[in-house]
Amino acid sequence: MYNYRTLSKSQLIELVNGIESTLSNSIYTAEKEAKEYSTELPSQLAFEVGYFKGYVKTVLSLIEEYKNCSK
Questions:
Q1: Could you tell me if 62 and 15 are in contact, meaning their C-beta atoms sit under 8 angstroms apart?
Q2: CB-based contacts of 48: which residues, under 8 Å, 6+ apart?
Q3: Which residues contact 19 (CB under 8 A, 6 or more apart)?
Q4: What angle do CA 30, 60, 68 make, to 5 degrees?
Q5: How many Å apart are CA 71 and CA 65, to the nearest integer?
Q6: DSSP3 helix / strand / coil % (the chain, rounded to 5)
Q7: N or C: less crowded end of the chain, CB within 10 Å?
Q8: CB under 8 Å to 35, separation ≥6 — which residues?
Q9: How far is CA 67 from the centre of its chain?
């Protein structure tokens, strides 16, 4: 497990703000895009999951960047 104590307080605040912003936008956007993708609920849900997965990967990349910056 990574020791986040190596990050400064300002880095942690910036990281949390980035995560919050990315994830809050992703919920709305995934739902909106899924409805444009298909009118069928199973297809919409599958699309939403895939779309949201991309945002989760973005958040994980952001976290990894901060880990690498603190080394």
A1: yes
A2: 30, 31, 33, 34
A3: 59, 62, 63
A4: 150
A5: 10
A6: 85, 0, 15
A7: N
A8: 44
A9: 16
The values of phi and psi at residue 2, to 5°, are -75, 140
Tokens 């995934």 -> residue: 30
Tally of CA atoms within 13 A in the half-sphere of 35 that contains its CB: 5
For the entire predicted model, the pTM comes to: 0.76
Cβ atoms of 48 and 30 within 8 Å: the answer is: yes
Specify burial of residue 46 (Cβ count, 10 A radius: 0-12, 13-18, 19+). Answer: middle
